[in-house]
Amino acid sequence: MANTQIAAARSGTITEEMERVAERENRDPEFVRKQVADGQAVIPANRNHDALDAMIIGREFATKVNANIGNSETTSDLETELEKLHTAVHYGADTVMDLGTGSDLDEIREAHIEHSPVPIGTVPLYEAVKQAGSPEAITTELLLEIIEKQAEQGVDYMTIHAGILAEHLPLTNGRKTGIVSRGGSIMAKWMEEHGEQNPLFQVFDDICEIFAEHDVTFSLGDSLRPGCLADACDEAQYAELDTLGELTRRAWEYDVQVMVEGPGHVPMHRVAENVERQQEVCDGAPFYVLGPLVTDVAPGYDHITSAIGAAIAAQSGASMLCYVTPKEHLGLPDEEDVRDGLAAYRIAAHAGDVANERPGARDWDDALSEARYEFDWREQFRLALDPDRAREYHDQTLPGDNYKEARFCSMCGVEFCSMRIDQDARASENSPRPAETDQSQTEAMARLETETDLESSPAAEVNRPPVGTHDSDDLPPIDEWAEQPIDSTGDD
């Protein structure tokens, strides 16, 4: 039997990783075990990833957020990539995917695994194309070689584009944007050139054996996800989803954990449909969605267009949200883009957890609201999703320390601050409101004395401040991670 999290769970064993997850989620370890055993949740935890602080992805747990980072042919620098990793973890990424396609991929990947407290994901097909020189030059032997190498390095989960089949390709002919998945387009090109079935589909059982050996989690790629609203929910997308359901069950037979990737660009009114359909077709395996973007008209603001869809997806049962940055469709994100994308997606994930009434999820909101009403500016900053940004915006107009005690902000000023006016009215105990009728008067407004205790909240760690709760105490500071930055570009 495979020595994986799902194998252990099925045998009745609660692993150290399950214990840690239960602590972070404020759930019973036995509940965690059962969710993993049933395939309803995954704990991506490659046995070779020593720095990992275990986490869980599943619809019965707090919604998680993934951040994509990675170099390209025009940018290849180890120091920059480690700074992106540091930024992603600091601002609350629960997992990080290294989608690098430039130089020094092995060195960068190994550095990420060595230093990352969060699970690291990859798309091995990208490295296969780089080594082969073109999509059509890829061989099944090369694919398996790269997958096994990355598993041995300690990659926790891999996107495997095995669901796009030769018979699906004609279904894309009526689309506006064709195949927008990198992996999907590579596999489609290979099948068109060779006239054969998807090689990743053909060797899927071999991949399962590699994953079982190292406890790598499948992230089954949505190669035919829609790249615009017009292509959403079409025959091609749903045909591939049916195949992903079959592959999910095949992986479970090997005691390998599975999550399934989803769209993409989807109109708001069809987001829930996508989640519900995936949950049915894939027997409840965790759904990991990119966005979805709910409109196509906002280049430069797609962290917003996608966070709207992400919040709806989280409310509908999606387990993890893949962030989108303001640079989507425009360029490679830098550190500030990573920060903005994660802020948008932490908001979406938290909003979904509040909507789903996860235990204690709203306590964070209540605590900040109370601090806001009391004009406790320092506590507001401490509780903020991004404390530095909140403090920066406040100090742009009211920078002095004396304004940290002020009962107003610069938006309304002293005279028109509604909360100050309300507080003053409630403080006037002998000033009842005017008579509503000749017979009675309303009572004076009572003082508000509520206080939320976040220390005793049942909320999961990701639904409490501060963000970035993965245990990284034993990791070196970032300035020690990259003593010899790489400054090359282009192919090896």
UniProtKB/TrEMBL annotation:
Q: Which cofactor does it need?
A: [4Fe-4S] cluster
Binding of [4Fe-4S] cluster occurs at: C409, C412, C417
Report the Pfam families cross-referenced here: ThiC_Rad_SAM
Q: Where is this region: Disordered?
A: 425-492
> InterPro entries per the record?
ThiC, ThiC/Bza_core_dom, ThiC/BzaA/B
Q: Is the keyword Zinc-finger assigned to this protein? A: no
Entry's cofactor comment: Binds 1 [4Fe-4S] cluster per subunit. The cluster is coordinated with 3 cysteines and an exchangeable S-adenosyl-L-methionine.
Tree of life domain: Archaea
- Provide the protein name: Phosphomethylpyrimidine synthase
